[in-house]
Amino acid sequence: MLNKKNILLFILVTVGILNASTQELKEVPVTIFVHGTYPPLIRNLFKNFMSVKPELTKISSINSDFHYIKKIGRYLANADSKEFPLTTLYAFGWPGKLDGAIRSKSGKILHAQIKKLFQDYKKTGLVPKITLIGHSHGGNVCLNIANHANNINNSCVQIERLILLGTPIQQETSTYASSPIFKKIYNVSSSLDITQILDPQKLHKENKHAKTCPFLSERRFKEESKIKQAKIKINDRAIMHVEFISKKFMQILPELLRQMDKLDDCRAKYLIKTYTNKKPFKIVSLNMN
Description:
Rossmann fold, 10 strands, 10 helices
């Protein structure tokens, strides 16, 4: 027969187990920004403002206020501190060279770093909900994660959202978008972004003998339900490649993602117009078919 002390002990143990279980399931939004290719002619100048180590670096820990990746982190946090809290914003650095092999190797390092991040967070009773933001070929570094995660069970990594900004869509990495490691993919492009398509993928070593490979890079993936794709204009003007990491664009990105979530038909070529000269700005979606 249970006495009062045993009943009290049973209740305390039960509550402790429930609290521990709740703690283990607590989710925290974590964002990782991956920069693009450094322009060859001004490579060293870009490196001074954009480079970070080939590891996950907390953006808030970057010392220089002039470092542009630190500014990107602040723009995102100011736009939506709940979705992009500054305390869980990271940057990943890679050599930034126009080389598919380097992007693949960097994707492998990034995968290992994210795997470690998962383990570190889980030790504290948190589950990170990872958002990857890849600008330009930084997006292909992110896609290469799937190449190095043989399967999702062995990987122990799940990417909640992969956001591609002006990423050259290329044959050797586009198939990775179908990997179950990526739950949702947002592909944002602009008709004025010539840089996105300039990399001649047909000349890549992997594609020289591929009959169906386009000569230049492309803007869009093949249709797939988990991939949302949009061309955008800001104030009735298409934007250039570098503007995808501008203050103006980062300020509208959280709302842009919410609007893209509302696009039901992944097959449609949507143009999303954003008006930032009005407060609050509005986003209008137009079906371009």
